[in-house]
């Protein structure tokens, strides 16, 4: 604490910034940074130093955005912008910087409209203040590119990044070692992939890696983004071992810099899981995904390039990707070259193959060679019928699988592969051509989680236009109020069915009712696990027969929240047979006394205790109550929508 020239108290904000930089440089982790920020906030406010408080708020919103605490970041953004007004700083560099930080926090929180408004205001304030080579303008263009990418406009995102790269290259003392230049190359690599420019993407990813190596910045937190970009390039080019290595190294840096609960950690963990799965499924790593082997001569230009008599042991997703790369894409390159630059392709929707849970037993129905092509409404109206006809003329078998025999529920208007208009595809799955707006929570509550799992699962092999990914991501971004309200509902069912009614029904000797209560408890707990992991990174709880497969897969992800719940749910189901309906451990009088009942109730309470601890860790509840119903009031207090709050 120091004094200004006028005798007023001044907080040592420069010292705070030095300590914070040192903590990040030492990779002390988010907890250390959080303590420094909290202490600085308290100190600046105690001193009444509003200028220092503004600096601390800007640092706080950046930290909380990075570690996935978006509600706090957005609240701090609003506080900071209000403080700019109180200090009379409108139109200043401090105003522009705060607007950029606030917009970035809002973008990360999924508030795209608020973010775009803040970015536009930031650009208007910054343009007359910053010089044409000011690196802060480059940061603004970088952030605008992310917003454009999130909205599916990858061409606009690419243009923003090129402006950012030009500013950085012209202002840098040494672009060959400049990590901001490297980060922009990484972003250009990812956007280039979205545009279908794979060679350009690989070039940008390699450039980013080289800059980090030259600059000796391989432990810098930004290096994780470069590693992830390079891993993405490797994955798309079929270099699966390189992809796994890149994601593993990126994840280690992210864990140290931002923590295992951050959004970056969750997304990178999921990418690593997919890369490992692809590597495990690839025989001798298989042919590169983006560079398939030449097709052998055949009587038809689209003949099956691999009519092997025995099927390859491929998953449905791997088969779909191979069929697209080796058969579908050559057809489109020859007959629909213009559409190839705009069409999205992949496998998304109902079925164990799209969800990634299929095995040899799954191949008796709705399995075989096929993929989805998604077109905008305009492209579908002009070209959909012709493209569908060419799709149907493709060979019926591939790599020993096929022809695809569809069951009645996957035929006609409910077909799972072929050519679709984007809006029609999602309307067929969910009843909505696009995700409901955040201010229509009743529509979100009407969507079953299994439906959302089908709409957001699977894989997209390419999407140069970005329209399909934008629509799909809309369903992934469940409004926070809706998520919290659903968590509250699941807590209520876990408390009522599991903690209250299982022992109550057993005391009454009504084993059948107790059995049903166990089922309700398990379903509610499984849903709570996915909701507390966050749909944007974990997806949604699927159809009932795949729920435990999904729980196991989620638990295997690094940084997964509540990985210990599903074993206790398994225990509950196993013990319920004896405790509720008789057998070893079933007590006298039909009341489920004995070891089975004790184990069942212990499994229920342990699962509930894990969920309660996670509620506290996420700041959703401060209650120490063991009975989950007692946490619901705290969750309700965190819901802004009055209609949801009153449910």
Automatic annotation (TrEMBL):
Matching InterPro entries? DUF4037 (IPR025117), TPR-like_helical_dom_sf (IPR011990)
Q: Does the keyword Ribonucleoprotein apply?
A: no
Which UniProt keywords are listed? Repeat, TPR repeat
Q: Residue ranges of the DUF4037 domain?
A: 444-546
In residue numbers, the region (Disordered) covers 279-315
Q: Where along the sequence do coiled-coil regions lie?
A: none
Q: Name one Pfam family in it.
A: DUF4037
Comp. bias (Pro residues):
285-295
**What name does this protein carry?**
DUF4037 domain-containing protein
């Amino acid at each position: 604490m120091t004094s200004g020239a006028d005798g007023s108290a001044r907080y040592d904000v420069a010292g705070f910034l030095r300590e914070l930089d040192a903590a990040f440089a030492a990779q002390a982790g988010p907890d250390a940074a959080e303590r420094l920020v909290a202490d600085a906030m308290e100190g600046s406010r105690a001193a009444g130093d509003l200028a220092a408080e503004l600096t601390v708020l800007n640092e706080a919103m950046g930290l909380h955005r990075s570690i996935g605490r978006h509600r706090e970041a957005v609240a701090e953004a609003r506080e900071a912008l209000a403080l700019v007004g109180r200090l009379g700083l409108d139109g200043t560099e401090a105003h522009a910087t705060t607007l950029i930080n606030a917009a970035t926090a809002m973008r990360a929180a999924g508030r795209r409209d608020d973010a775009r408004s803040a970015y536009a205001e930031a650009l208007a304030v910054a343009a007359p203040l910053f010089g044409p080579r000011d690196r802060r303008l480059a940061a603004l263009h970088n952030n605008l590119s992310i917003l454009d990418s999130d909205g599916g406009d990858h061409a606009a995102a690419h243009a923003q990044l090129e402006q950012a790269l030009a500013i950085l290259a012209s202002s840098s003392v040494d672009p060959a070692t400049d990590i901001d230049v490297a980060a922009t190359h990484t972003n250009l690599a990812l956007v280039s992939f979205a545009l279908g420019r794979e060679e350009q993407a690989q070039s940008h990813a390699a450039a980013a890696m080289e800059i980090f190596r030259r600059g000796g910045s391989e432990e810098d937190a930004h290096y994780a983004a470069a590693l992830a970009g390079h891993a993405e390039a490797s994955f798309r080019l079929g270099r699966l071992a390189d992809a796994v290595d890149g994601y593993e190294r990126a994840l280690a840096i992210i864990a140290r810099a931002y923590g295992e609960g951050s959004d970056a950690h969750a997304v990178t963990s999921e990418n690593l899981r997919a890369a490992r799965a692809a590597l495990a499924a690839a025989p001798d790593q298989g042919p590169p995904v983006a560079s398939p082997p030449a097709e052998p001569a055949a009587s038809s230009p689209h003949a099956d390039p691999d009519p092997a008599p025995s099927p390859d042991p491929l998953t449905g997703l791997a088969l779909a990707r191979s069929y697209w790369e080796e058969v579908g894409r050559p057809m489109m390159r020859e007959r629909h070259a213009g559409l190839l630059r705009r069409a999205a392709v992949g496998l998304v929707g109902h079925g164990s193959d799209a969800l990634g849970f299929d095995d040899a037993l799954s191949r008796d129905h709705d399995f075989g060679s096929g993929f989805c092509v998604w077109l905008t409404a305009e492209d579908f109206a002009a070209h959909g019928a012709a493209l569908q006809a060419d799709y149907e003329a493709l060979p019926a078998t591939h790599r020993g699988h096929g022809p695809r025999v569809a069951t009645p529920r996957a035929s006609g208007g409910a077909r799972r592969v072929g050519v679709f208009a984007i809006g029609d595809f999602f309307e067929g799955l969910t009843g909505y051509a696009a995700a409901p707006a955040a201010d229509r929570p009743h529509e979100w509550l009407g969507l079953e989680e299994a439906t959302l799992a089908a709409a957001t699962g699977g894989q997209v092999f390419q999407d140069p236009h970005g329209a399909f990914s934008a629509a799909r991501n809309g369903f992934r971004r469940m409004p926070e109020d809706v998520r919290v309200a659903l968590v509250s509902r699941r807590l209520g069912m876990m408390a009522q069915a599991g903690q209250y009614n299982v022992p109550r029904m057993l005391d009454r000797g009504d084993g059948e009712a107790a059995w049903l209560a166990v089922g309700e408890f398990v379903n509610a707990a499984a849903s709570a696990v996915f909701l507390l992991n966050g749909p944007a990174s974990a997806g949604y709880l699927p159809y009932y027969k795949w729920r435990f497969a999904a729980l196991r897969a989620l638990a295997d992800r690094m940084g997964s929240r509540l990985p210990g719940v599903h074993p206790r749910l398994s225990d509950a189901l196993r013990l319920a047979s004896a405790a509720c309906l008789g057998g070893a451990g079933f007590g006298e009088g039909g009341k489920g006394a004995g070891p089975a009942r004790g184990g069942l109730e212990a499994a229920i309470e342990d699962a509930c205790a894990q969920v309660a601890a996670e509620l506290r860790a996420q700041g959703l509840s401060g209650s120490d109550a063991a009975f989950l119903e007692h946490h619901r009031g705290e969750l309700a207090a965190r819901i802004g929508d009055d209609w949801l709050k009153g449910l």
